[in-house]
Amino acid sequence: MKKAILKGLIGLTTLSEFAHANDNTTLDEVVVTATRTPQLQETVIADTTVIGSEEIKRAGQNTLIEVLQRQAGIEISNTGGAGKTSGIFMRGTNTGHVVVLIDGVRMQSATAGTTTLENIPVQHIDRIEIVRGPASSLYGQDAIGGVIQIFTKKGVAGFKPYANLGFGTYDTTLVEAGLRGKQADTTYAINVSANKTNGFSAYDTANSNLNDKDGYRNFAVSGSLSQLIAEGHELGLTFIHSKGRTRFDNRFNLTSAFNPAYSDHADIENNAWSLFSKNQILDNWHSTVRIGQGVDESVTYSADFAAPTRSLFRTKQDQLNWQNDISLPVGVLTLMYDRLEDKVDSTTEFKNTKRTNEGYVASYVANIQAHTFQASVREDHNSSFGNNVTGGLGYGYQINDAWRISGSYGSAFKAPSFNDLFFPDSFGFVTSNPNLRPEKSDNLEASLRYREDATSASITAYENKIRDLIILDSAFIPVNLNKATIRGLTLAASHRWDNLDLSGSADIQSPRDDASDNLLVRRANRHGQLNLGYTLQDWRFGAEMVTSSERYNDAANTLRMGGYTIFNLTAQYKLQRDWTLQARANNIFDKDYRLALDGNPATTGFAYNTPGANVFVNIRYEPQ
């Protein structure tokens, strides 16, 4: 039975391969996001990155956006510091072109069409899997650019408490604690965190009405509980609750007719929970049923007209997934049903506040000697946009022990957001377009990878053609752009010499509007990152570089944001077996750079500030 379960779960490599890997203590990472089934990372066809718990802790970063900024293929935007609206551009696609999952549950605002990444606390994250490239044939709508799956801290063998306390620039404080354990067949975890920063002015302006500190605070709790009922049968639950308050600058406060003394702010809340049942129905049939809900809520309090106003946007995403993994004599066949129901509650009256999407998936993955095959097809029935069929096809070949080549094709789509479709007119200004069509894309890519001992390297080339791409025109009305083409090349490499390790990536891309040949908004032609680490007994030192070429804040490419390079330093010292002291210095040369603009700074607009040189120090207790 155990052997059958292992084959049913992995199904993509032989038991002898596992034994060989274990004998040499080089067992590869197991990835689930790339195919929705466990697969050894070295056999995954998609361009995939795994960020483990040690890397997250060792980096000492305070926000998820900072962690993602250091990954290949990802650019970020931010509107004025911690807790402010942030986004990621994966392989040059839009911020809403990435599916974000927390423990298998979608987390997204149906009104904005994006995920509130700035309010997901990194302290609760144990692992992140990033899959670049289209994945709608597995995950449905929105996965034009890729998928990011976040795994919160779960129970581990034994009884392991942990705690962390930190202080830093901008009056930043952090407290976190948790407990992870396992008793007999019961596994459990509970994690709590609270952090606060006074921040800096979100707008880069000398105007006294706006040049204040726009801080952010957050309280979060997450947990999990699972029970092994019998061999091959497990019941469990996961949850995360994150509540934040962020302050921001309001351009209406520029005149004395309004209330400049009022501190505009927004309360942000994100929740995700799920109940699951994992069952080995037959030796070759593994079933997982998961029901869950993702909640994204923002309540904005703003003195737009002297007296404060309240604006609510709440999205509830009810979700049901039934996945069946069937181990065949060769490979694994997955049959799946997905249901997603979006419900919008808002102080703004939308014409439509509900829509559903049902997806039916069939996928197949197999390893046959040096060959890897992957195929998937999905049909989505959307209550607003009818049927959408997407597919994916991939092939990989292990040339020898070190070299591997692969290629793939994938199609994807994204349904327009409720804001894009239905946001009502305000003061006579049209800000929505009910005639929008879903965005659709076709992507081709190929990669060559090298891996041997302490060295790894890869080069991935791709071309993503997007039809009916949604952008804001010069009047800030969402429209379907005829076509956009994103061509790119991602190079990544790492090497370890005894106590020294070096890794980095470079992205050369051309994300452009086919008609005008302009760069897509806030996307660069070149960006990259470099990381250097050195370990000396109980010490570890690190240096990081993040760089980007120029970008534009508008579709016409008139509002230029210059290129930038920032440098960070880290240090870690193991005080005792269970105690670690960490320090992190960001932007050590105090580089002044921009990730977003609000309008044209030359007229009535402003540039959003980014953090200057800053330091964060923390001490962690975690029994080994």
UniProtKB/TrEMBL annotation:
It is found in: Cell outer membrane. Keywords: Cell outer membrane, Ion transport, Membrane, Receptor, Signal, TonB box, Transmembrane, Transmembrane beta strand, Transport. Residues 44-147 form the TonB-dependent receptor plug domain. Residues 183-588 form the TonB-dependent receptor-like beta-barrel domain. Residues 1-21 form the signal peptide. Its main location: membrane. It is a multi-pass membrane protein. Belongs to the TonB-dependent receptor family. This is TonB-dependent receptor domain-containing protein.
